[in-house]
Fold this sequence. Notes:
Layout: E1 3-9, E2 13-18, E3 23-28, E4 31-34, E5 39-42, H1 46-63, E6 70-73, E7 78-82, E8 85-86, E9 89-96, H2 99-105, E10 112-122, E11 131-132, H3 134-139, H4 145-168, E12 171-182, E13 188-191, E14 199-203, H5 213-216, H6 222-234
Antiparallel strand pairs: 1-2, 2-3, 3-7, 4-5, 6-7, 8-12, 9-10, 9-12, 10-11, 12-13, 12-14
Helix pairs in contact: 1-6
Bound molecules: thymidine-5'-phosphate (TMP).
Amino acid sequence: MEKLExxxxxxxxxxxxxxxxxxYIVEYKDDATALNGLKKGTIVDKGIMNNTISSKLxxxxxxxxxxxxxxxxxxxxxxxxxxxEIVPIEVLVRNYAAGSLTKRYGIPEGTKMDSTILxxxxxxxxxxxxxxxxxxxxxxxxxxxxxxxxIAKSAFRINEILIDLMKNxxxxxxxxxxxxxxxxxxxxxxxxxISPDTCRLWDADTHEKLDKDRFRRDMGKVExxxxxxxxxxxx
Length: 235
Ligand code: TMP
């Protein structure tokens, strides 16, 4: 497996071509951003921790029948993945109120929702990833109706699996963000990452935050939070 030219550099990851037509290498960086890129910083060894957490979660999801872009973990910071075209939608799943939901609807942080909330954002940095619904997705041709159906069903199933998994390591899965991709065959599979950058994870007893909110809110002990998730997930 040879790592060829960089195709894309995002805020937290780089994507490289390989000598295999349908395989990419994702490299996880330590850079952290918040407030739509206004707040910038570094979380020491975040790339290593997120690659470890993401790899493990993709493996566990695959074992439960979820199709993902994950092939294998290559090194500390590198993951081999299937080539996909990212669907430009961020899929947000919420079990407890936090973050933008608390602001938008005035729900106190930590309120358990009576049922799972699914939301979509248009993946567009210049616009600040604005919220959209199924009608926007259809009208703007971001995805086919059948693809949105697949994405929604998959997101709910992933939520069930992750809630269980996190419960076993004494973590409440507050909310998280998913991205999906289209394979060259047109199949919709889970892509991107699942890590403390993209999830809110609270200790089930103390409600201590073990995720990127520690960075977003300058709470300190950011690395310690991520490391605690690594420790618990690797068991
Ligand atoms: P929010 O409360 O800011 O809308 O975020 C909900 C969840 O989704 C939270 O776990 C953070 C994650 N998320 C991302 O990973 N990337 C994003 O661009 C957004 C908006 C949220």
